[in-house]
Amino acid sequence: MELERRRVLRMGGAIAAGAGLTGLTACSGTGDTGQGAGAAGEKGKGRITVWSWQGPAAQMKALVPEFNKKYPEIEVTVEDIGNPAIWDKITTGLAAGGQGLADVLHIGVDYLPGYVEKFPGGLADLAPLGADTYRDSFAQGMWQTVSPDGRRVNALPWEANSAGFYYRADLFEKAGVDAGALQTWEETIEAGKEIKQKTGAHLLGIDKPASQADAANFFQMLLQLQGSFYFNLAGDITLDSPEAVKAMTLIKTMNDAGLVSDLAGGWNTLMSSLKQGTAAVLPMPTWFGGVIEEQVPQEAGKWKVRLPPAVRRGGSVAATVNSTHLAVAGSSKHQAAAWSFIEFVLTRPSSQVQIYRGKGIAPALMKAYDDAVFHEPSAFFGGQKKGEVFLEALKAPSPAFNYTADYARALKLVTDAQSKVLLGGADPAKVLKEAADQLGRQSGRKVAR
Amino acid sequence: MTTTLTGRAADRAAPSRGTARRPGPRRRVAPYLFVLPALLLFAVFKLYPIARSFVISLHRTVGGTERFVGADNYTRLMGDPLFWTALKNTAVILAVQVPVMLALATGLAVALNSGLLRGRAVFRLGFFLPMVTGLVAYGIIFSVLLNKDYGLVNWATGLVGLDPVPWLTDPLWAKVSLGLALTWHYTGYNAVILLARLQSVPAELYDAAAVDGAGAWTSFRHVTLPGLRPALLLTTVLSTIGTLQIFDEPYVLTGGGPDNATLTIGVYLYQNAFKYFDFGYASAIAYALAVLIGILGVIQFRFLGEKT
Predict the structure, then answer these.
(1) A289 closest CA partner among A226, A360, A347, A239
(2) What is d(CA A289, CA A388) in angstroms, rounded to the nearest whole number?
(3) 3-class SS of residue B22
(4) pLDDT tens, position by position, A125-164
(5) I need a labelling partner for A397 at 20 to 30 A (CA). Which of A262, A432, B53, B297 fits?
(6) At a CB cut-off of 8 Å and minimum separation 6, what does B103 contact?
(7) Which residues of chain A from 210 to 269 reach within 8 Å of chain B, CB to CB?
(8) Chain A CA closest to residue B48
(9) Do B259 and A88 touch (CB under 8 A)?
(10) Quick one: pLDDT at residue A17?
(11) What is the rounded distance in angstroms from the CA atom of residue A266 to the CA atom of residue B139?
C-alpha cells in the first residue's frame, strides 16, 4: 500500500513535470514576440486604441473628429497613460508578447532602441504600410532614429525638440547682463554670478539627488551641443569622453559658485520653482515653452528664449535633444487602420499645426513649418518669433545620436555620477570614468578611449 | 486510469493505516474536487512562474533571442557592486528599523491592552489605519511632507528655529526617512498581532506575580515577554521577509537614490527587469533574494522558536 502510494505520487509528479517542461519549451523558444501574429487588417476599418500621455494625448483626442470625417469606419480611443507610467506599461505588454498592448504607441527616443532590440517584432514594420514615402519629410537625423538600417521602419517621428535657453529677461536686465550676447557657458556662469548677487535668483536648477531619471537632462544637453553622447555611433561607451568631462565640470563650477538650485522631487518641484522664480534660466527643449506659458501666464513679456550658448567658443548652439514617435504594436490586429491614424496625425501639416497651437509641441515634419503660426511674434516671449528660433536649430547641421538598448543603464550611472559631483563635490573625470567602466561591465560594450 | 489515480491518491487523506472505517469512494473523491481549483490556481500562478523564473535566470536575451548562459547571471551578481550596495542597504534597514519598530509595537500593544486607557478601540483603529493606506499614496504623501524646501515637516521644524533637513536628498537622511515611513506604516499592524497574543496571556499569571511582589517591569519581563514569544517570532519573521522584499517605499520616496543610498534588492530587481529589460539578471536577483529569505527564516526559527 505504502509503495503503491509512492508510485502513484511519482507518476503524478512525472506527468506534471512533463507538462511543465513542454510548457516551458513552448514559451522559451525563439523569443519571437508576436511577429506575424497581427494581421494587417483593413486600412479604413477597425477599432484602434492609442496610448500616449498628458498633452499629446489631449491633442490627439482633439484630432479624432476630423480623422473620422476621412475614416468614418475607424473607431479611435486615445488613452492618457501618463508619463513615465507609459514606459512600464509598454514594457510589460511587450514582454508578454504583445498581450494587452494598444495598437498605436507613443514612444520617446530614449526607449525606442531598447524596445526594438529587446523585443524584436514587438513593434510592427511600417515600411510595407507605406512609411517609406515619408523618408525625406522629417527633420534631419529623425529617419536614422526610426529606421537605423534604412529598410525597416519602427515608428514615425512626431516631435523634434531642440535645446533651448528660456530666460527671465527682467532678471538679466536687473543684473545688467545682455543675455543675447552670451557666447559660451563660461560667460553664462559669470553672468549667473551677477544675477545671483543683484537679484538673488539662481542661474538654473538641477535635480541634484536625481530623484527622477531626467535629472541629467542638462548634462545631456551640454554633451549634445558638443556633438557627443553616452555612446558613439558604433555603440561603444563614450561616457568619460573629454566632452563629457567638460560638461560635468561646467556643472560643478556652477554648483560650487552657488548658482544651482536643487530641484529634488522632479516635475512638481520644477513647477514650484518656476512659479517662485527661483532660477533665471531654464535650459529646456522646445516643448517647455508651452509649459512656461501655462504655468506663469502673469509673467508674459518677462520671458525670452534663445538657443543655448556654445560649450566651446564658436561651437554649435543647435542640438536635437529628444524626439518622440508613434509606433504600431506588432501584435495589433488592425495595423493598417493604426497606420492610417499615424499618417493622419504625423504627415499632414494641418494636424501638426493644430497640435502646435494647442500645446506648443514642435513637429519633426518640416513641411508644417510653412504655416504662419511658426513665424508669428509671441506676446508671452516679448514679441519674439519663438517658432523661428527653434526652426533655425532644426535646420542647423546636427549629428545623430545613438541611444542604444543600454541607454537606461547609462542614464542611471550618469545621474548617480552627477549626484556625487553635486552633493559630494566629487571629481567629474573620476566619477565619469567609474561610470563608464561599470557600464562596460554591465552591458558588455567596449569603452572607447 | 483517472479513477484509480484519484482513488489511490485519496488514500493519503485517509486516517493512518489500520483505523476502523475506510471512507467510501465517493467521499474520497469529493475533498480533492474541492481543493482542485485552488491547486490549479496555485500551480498556474505560483509554481509555474517560480519555475519559469529559474529557467529565465539561466538565460540572457541577445538580439531578441534567449541564449542559455548557465550560471553566468549568478556569477555576475557576485561581482556586481550595485547588488552588494542594495544588499547592504537592505541589511541596514533590517538591523535598525525592524527592532525599533517591534519594540515600539510591543510598547503600543501593552498600552492598548491596559485597562487604564479610555477609548481603546479608537486608538487601535488609529494605529492600524496606516496599514490599509495604499502604498503608493502614502509614499507620495511622505515625499510631499519631507520635501526639503516646500515640505510641511521642515516648515514646522523651521518654526522652532531648526535648519531645514534634506530628508530625501542626503544619503543618510534618505535612509532615516525610509525608516520613518516604514515604521509609521507597519508598527500598528505588528501591534495588533502582539495585542491579540497579549490578550491570551492568563490574568492569573499577573496576579501570581503581583502576590510574589513583582513590580511592573518584572512582571513585564517574566510574564508578558514570555507570553508574547510566539507572536514576537511571527512578527519578526514577517517583518524580515517584508523588509528584504521592500520595494514600494524606496521606489516612490527616493527612487533608490540619492546615489543608490536607498537602493534595495527589490528596487534593483525592478530596475533590471523593467528599465533595462534584463529579465535573466532580474530573475537571478529574485532567486538570490529567495535563498536569503529562506536562510534568515531558518535562523530566526532556530533562535526564537519554541525549544522542543
Answers:
(1) A360
(2) 13
(3) coil
(4) 999 999 999 999 999 889 989 998 899 999 999 999 999 9
(5) A432
(6) none
(7) 210-213, 262, 264-265, 269
(8) A20
(9) no
(10) 37
(11) 15
The amino acid at residue A66 is: E
Q: If you average pLDDT over every residue of chain A, what do you get?
A: 88
CB atoms within 10 A of CB A143: 21
Percent with pLDDT over 90 in chain A: 73
Q: Which residues of A fall within a CB distance of 8 Å from B149?
A: 262, 269, 272
Answer yes or no: is the ipTM higher than 0.90.
Answer: no
Residue B3 has pLDDT above 70, yes or no: no
Contacts of residue B156, Cβ cutoff 8 Å, sequence gap at least 6: none
Residues of B in contact with A213 (CB under 8 A): 255
Q: Which residue has the higher pLDDT, A211 or B174?
A: B174
* Residue B46 DSSP one-character state: I
| Other beta carbons within 10 Å of B274 | 18
Give tens-digit pLDDT for B101-157.
999 999 999 888 887 777 888 888 888 888 888 888 888 888 888 887 778 899 998
- Reading the block at residue A184, the C-alpha cell is 559660451
Q: What is the DSSP-derived secondary structure letter of residue B74?
A: H
If pLDDT is split at 50, 70 and 90, which confidence band does A6 have?
A: very low
Please give, rounded to a whole number of angstroms, the shortest distance from the CA of A409 to a CA of chain B. 6
From chain A residues 336-395, the ones with a CB under 8 A of any chain B CB are none
pTM of the model: 0.81
pLDDT confidence of residue A348? 96
Contact B254 A211 (CB under 8 A): yes
Cα angle vertex A401, ends A399, A403, to 5°? 175
Cell of B95: 538591523
Task: Give yes or no for a contact between B183 and B104, defined as CB atoms under 8 angstroms apart.
Answer: yes
**pLDDT tens, A293-342?**
999 999 999 999 999 999 999 999 999 998 999 999 999 999 999 999 99
What one-character DSSP code corresponds to residue B273?
I
